[in-house]
Design brief:
This protein is mostly helical. The protein is built from five helices and no strands.
């Protein structure tokens, strides 16, 4: 609770208070996606030479990744609109563009080992976004 209060003060002082709700959304989405991507990466490691497993129609992870990319873009624009730190704006813009590329890596994988690595990259990207959005000064 104290950490959250300090973050709110820091956010207000840096001029990105309206973006705080957007940051919360990024944190929430990133945490869920990272957990699922880590779970999938681990499951695929058990049979690494087998052919890749395509996304199922309506896979909720795809929807969540799209929402995450949009949330990161929205946060980047909110930071820019509020005159917030340029580096944070650029970080979240880059993250918003990186998420679709990670989906493409999963789809392009030939083996489960390749897919496992792609899911691990999704987890890395989203964990990184989660940390930065939660504690922008860290």
């Amino acid at each position: 609770m104290v950490l959250r209060a300090l973050i709110i003060v820091m956010v207000v002082l840096t001029g990105i208070a309206p973006a705080f709700g957007d940051a919360d959304r990024v944190v929430r989405l990133a945490a869920g996606i990272a957990s699922e991507a880590e779970r999938r990466a681990e499951a695929l490691r058990h049979n690494p030479a087998a052919p890749a497993v395509p996304f199922e129609a309506g896979d909720p992870l795809l929807t969540e990744l799209d929402e995450f990319a949009l949330a990161a873009l929205t946060l980047s624009r909110a930071i820019e609109a509020e005159g917030g730190p340029e580096d944070l704006k650029c970080i979240f813009l880059g993250i918003s563009r990186d998420a679709p590329a990670r989906i493409a890596e999963v789809e392009a994988a030939d083996t489960r080992a390749d897919q496992s690595r792609a899911y691990a990259e999704i987890a890395r990207l989203t964990r990184q976004a989660e940390r930065i959005a939660a504690e922008p000064d860290a």
